[in-house]
Amino acid sequence: MKQLLFVIGFLMIAHSAPAQLFSKEKILNQENFDKQRLTWGFFLGLNTYDFKFTYNRDQSDIQTKMNTGFNVGLVSDLRLNDYFNIRFEPGLYINQRDLYYGEDWFNGQSVNDNDLLREVKSTYVHFPVLLKVSTKRLNNFKPYVLGGVSAALNLSSNQENPDDNSVGQFRTKRSMLFWEVGFGIDFYLYWFKFSPSIRGVFAINDEVVRDRDPNSPWTNNINSMQSRGVFLNFTFQ
């Protein structure tokens, strides 16, 4: 019975969706929402991070295993005019990346599986300032693009840890800078505005903290290590 009700409900939504989106007689939800000077909200979402490496000399690439993480944060939106908004979206982004080294990084030294794997945990508190550029509203939805810069603190950073890779600790910096770009759609629902969006983030500065030993097989060949990621956010205002 539940399955039958689900199918019927899905068919009704699928049948009515085109009319809801494109009918000229559509009743506008939240008609005056965008006339407010300042609005607030929150977001939930998912993230995935990678590292971009550059090297001092030719060697096998460090392979990064990406995992899916979780996002949560707040939104404050300042309306400039009908098409431009300034957004501040402080949020918490939790993730882990696994780094796999090739044996050639160890110059013939005896290694085990633990030497070839490093786990990099990240708990970023992002502080992005973004410019949102929207199209004209069409019935109850409005596409937009956005971009800007952000500062971030990695609460999982072990930058000050005296232990390094010689005892299994891969260290990363605490303070980071990123630039961000993405797109999304505002959907004006009966009670609130719902905005799914996807965004790419790219680190500006180097994130690796090098080992004390300048000949460390884990860090001596890394010229730079920069985070890059994709955010999928669901915003409610």
Model regions low in confidence, pLDDT < 50 over at least 5 residues: 1-23
State the separation between the terminal residues, measured CA to CA: 35 Å
Helix content: 10-25%
**Whole-angstrom Rg:** 23 Å
CATH architecture tag: Beta Barrel
Structural class of the secondary structure composition?
Answer: mainly beta
**Range of strand content:** over 45%
Question: What count of domains describes the coordinates?
Answer: 1
Overall form: elongated
Helix and strand element order: HEEEEEHEEEEEEE
The pLDDT mean sits at 88
Q: What profile does the largest beta sheet have?
A: 10 strands, antiparallel
Got a strand count?
12
The CATH C-level name is Mainly Beta
| DSSP helical segment count | 2
Assign the CATH topology.
Porin
Write out key terms for the chains shown.
elongated, two-stranded antiparallel sheet, 10-stranded antiparallel beta sheet, mainly beta, about 240 residues, Porin, 2 helices
Write the layout of secondary structure elements.
Elements: H1 2-22, E1 38-55, E2 63-66, E3 68-79, E4 84-88, E5 91-100, H2 113-116, E6 117-134, E7 141-154, E8 171-172, E9 175-188, E10 193-203, E11 208-209, E12 222-236
Antiparallel strand pairs: 1-3, 1-12, 2-5, 3-4, 3-5, 4-6, 5-6, 6-7, 7-9, 8-11, 9-10, 10-12
